[in-house]
Amino acid sequence: MFGPSVQVYTAAHLIQAKARIQGWEEAKPIVIEDNVWLGGGAILLPGIRIGRNAVVGAGSVISRDVPANTIVAGNPTKVIKVIE
Description:
Largest sheet: 4 strands, mixed
Oligomer: single chain
Strand content: 35-45%
Number of strands: 11
Radius of gyration: 14 Å
Number of domains: 1
Helix content: under 10%
Structural class: mainly beta
Strand order of the largest sheet: 5-8-10-11
């Protein structure tokens, strides 16, 4: 489930200045497993995986993988609770 205004970014600019100035960028996949709930305004950054049954709090910025069966929130996201 996606709340309103969820942003999913797969484009990443290169770290090397010369290549970045020339306009090069790369795409990194985002994997969203089954039964995930993304709260409104969550931002998913390139290259992350959200584990099955995870819940992401509204307004969270996801910059690393989210473990399955967890509730995460914040900027950057932190595990708030493990779902039994």
